[in-house]
Hints:
Layout: H1 3-16, E1 25-28, E2 37-45, E3 56-63, E4 71-75, E5 80-83, E6 91-97, E7 103-108, E8 117-122, E9 127-129, E10 138-143, E11 149-153, E12 157-158, E13 161-162, E14 166-169, E15 174-176, E16 185-190, E17 196-200, E18 203-207, E19 212-214, E20 223-228, E21 234-238, E22 243-246, E23 251-253, E24 266-271, E25 277-281, E26 291-296, E27 301-307, E28 311-317, E29 325-330, E30 334-335, E31 338-339, E32 343-348, E33 353-356, E34 367-370, E35 378-384, E36 390-397, E37 400-404, H2 405-408, E38 417-420, E39 424-429, E40 435-440, E41 451-461, E42 465-470, E43 474-477
Amino acid sequence: MSRSFQHLLLAQCVIAGAAxxxxxxxxxxxxxxxxxxxxxxxxxxxxxxxGPLPAQLxxxxxxxxxxxxxxxxxxxxxxTWQPVGALGYAHATVVxxxxxxxxxxAAFDPTSGPTAHRVAQWDGTTxxxxxxxxxxxxxxxxxxxxxxxxxxxxxxxxxTTPIANVARWDGVAWHAMGSGLGQYCDELLVMxxxxxxxAGLFGVSRWDGVAWNSLSGSVIGWGxxxxxxxxxxLYAGSKYNRVRRWDGSSWTALGGPVFASGYAFVEDLVVxxxxxxxxxxxxxxxxxxxxxxxxxxxxxWSPVAIADGPVMALAVRRSRGVNFDVVAGGRMSxxxxxxxxxxxxxxxxxxPSITTSPSGCPAGGPVLAVEPAWxxxxxxxxxxxxxxxxxxxxxxxxxxxxxxxxALLPQAAPGCTLLVTPDVTELLTVxxxxxxxxxxxxxxxILAGATFRHQVVAIAGGASITSVVATAAATLTxxxx
Length: 481
């Protein structure tokens, strides 16, 4: 059965069993800060890496003098913001997690003179500076696939070493990246394929490992924000109220102006679970109630919130598991008519959900991990602990089943059960005991609340079958944002 036909069949099956639902989104102040402060950036941080602790939302802040710490994390268990150590500076401009659990932050203190600008790392106990002092601000950071830290800003010296606007930390020292970017760098982004992209006064450029290469000249103008979607497409927002998409050779404008104000900045971009874009307007121009958060649905921009102050940062928060939401941070006290303290939360009334059956068979056998299913999103299921040599069978259906695998294949382990109706099946190649299934769901609200089930059966053996085992089954309810 062809892959495209499988996708179509699954979509038709799910739609046929779905009830049309209304899924309004709403703004809340549930994540507001305990004290007024400006929020410049968010990050999702898992403090113990692959350990048992859940990921946390972290914010880089500019508190009032003498008030809250400048790097704070939201604890979902207690529902409170908590300081991440004491960095010892007045403002944080950047916060970025490393895959090994450390947290990197850029900070400055306008009263500190020659020691004003530093990059530091939190190891779970202490903040330690990375290298020397930057002579000007660091405003963005990214972590390369090898763990190196890259920062950008408007600096041209680190200590006594000339390094212009962008620098790489290899764990020992800061290094120049080619001849630098030459102009102010506002944003850095690592793409799914590992490419490093920079945006700033120079437009948008890509690092090829040796030099920076401009992407189609200066079409973007002053680039302020970058984002990528699940398919690896690059988006860039500019100081000139526009968002463009890069197709690998040229830029395409997404509609006309994003915001009502002709002088608006597209300060930040984030991709929603269904693939839509959300943009933040960071320049208020002194006009109250003029700053917006806007949404691109593939055809046009539409406002989703008016705020009374600049919106500087957006993030899709995954720290609550499958109940994703969006957070907007900046210098706002009112968003969409809701009182907030610098952070507003945007939630859907139709989130996805995941439940699993008891463990697979035999006990301690293969494990199934699934992503939440969103209308318009890419859903991924990953099975591990599969036997080799052999192959897997991905089974997806609309209803539950209880069919003995032993009745189908006598080599099945005792007690193994097919828990899903085999409406769609797919052969999976097993590599290092692992295999994955990926579906792209249609972007339609009719999928809200639709439910489907998934399980992986593994057949071991070469010329003949030696054993049959199975993962647990997952039941997924589709969410709509």
